[in-house]
Amino acid sequence: MNGCFEFGWYDACAVMMRRLLETAIIEAFEAKKLDNKIKDSKGEFLQLTALIAAALSEAAWNLSRNTKQALPRLRDVGHKSAHSRRFTAQKSDIEKVQPDCRVALEEFLHLAGLV
Q1: pLDDT at 16 over 90
Q2: What range does the domain containing 71 cover?
């Protein structure tokens, strides 16, 4: 993610940011032994939108206001870069969500006991 940003590959950076967020949310659920809440009937982890919804409604933790506000913004830029044929992230798109990325990732990694 950081390397992509450094080299100006902003679409790739947004996709990597999205992937890191998915992983951090999953790690937090697994650390709390709640991963069954974020799996489908086949035992596969849910997609990012559903992961975010589950994280926002999880009673085992109380996410900060900043993380609650950041998650939809991070999801949107990640979704656009990963799925839109006509959107290419620019440096300004990533810079807008850098603080969101930091606060959300740090919170989920803390919940997961990784920091």
Answers
A1: yes
A2: 2-111
